[in-house]
Design goal:
Elements lengths: L1 H4 L2 H10 L2 E7 L6 H13 L5 E4 L2 E3 L3 H9 L6 H4 L2 E3 L5 H7 L6 H14 L2 E5 L9 E2 L7 E2 L1 H8 L2 E7 L4 H10 L3 H4 L3 E5 L11 H5 L8 E4 L8 H4 L3 H11 L3
Parallel strand pairs: 1-5, 1-8, 2-5, 3-4, 8-9, 9-10
Antiparallel strand pairs: 6-7
Helix pairs in contact: 3-4, 7-8
Amino acid sequence: MLGAALSSGRVSALLAEVKRIFFITGTDTGVGKTVLTALLARYLRERGVNVAALKPVSSGDRHDARALGVALAGALALDEINPWHFRAAVAPVLAARREHKCVRLAEVLAYVQGMQKRFNVVLVEGAGGLLSPLGVSGSRNRAYFNSRDLILALRATPVVVCPNRLGAVNQALLTLAALPPSIRAGARVVLMLPPHPDAASGSNAILLADCFDPKRIFRLPWLGEKFAPGRALQRPAACEALRGLTGLE
C-alpha cells in the first residue's frame, strides 16, 4: 500500500510541489466517470492529499455532483462542485439555452484555475463524452467548447473511462485519437468491468496494449450496484489501479 511506503504528509507534500489536474472524460455518457472520480477523491483524501473533485457543468439531475460531495466528506458545497447546472436532461449547451443562459469557456477555465490555487490536486469530471458540447467558446453562441478544449486549456492529464466490454478497444482508441499527440502522451485509460462481463472483457486490455502504452491502461473490477467509495477501496484491485493512475507509487 502507498501508506506503507510514504507517510500521508509526504504524499501531500509531493503533490503540492506539482499541482495536478486530472480530467476524467469518457467514451460516452454513463460509462463510470463519476464512480472513478469519487474513488480518486476518496483515495487521495485518505492519504492526506488536499483534493477537490468538480463536475463544473451538468444537466438533468445532480446525482453525480452529490456523489462527489460524499467522497469529499463535505470539503466543498454542492454548488462549488457543480456551479453550472441546468434542469433538462439533454446536452448542457442545449439545457442552458432552454433556460436562456449559457456556459462560457473562459468562465469555466477561470473557475477551475481558481480551485487549483486552493487544492493540490483537482479532479474535473466532464459531462458526456470527450467531444460533447458543454457551452460556448466565444461571443458567437454557436461556437461550442467541449471537454477536449478544457483539457488543452488547463493542461490537464486526461483519464478516459471506458466500459470493459465488446467495442471498448475501438471506443478508447477513437477517444484517444481525438486528443493532440502531446496531450495523448500523458493520457490514462480506465477499463470499468460491467456487472456481466462478456467474452471481450478479459482480452480488451491486452489488445489495447498493442496500440497504447500498457503502463497507462488500468482495470477496475465491478464495484457493485450500490457503489460506496469507502467499501470499494477495500478491494486490492481498485487500490492498485488508483496507485498506478495517479503515479503515486
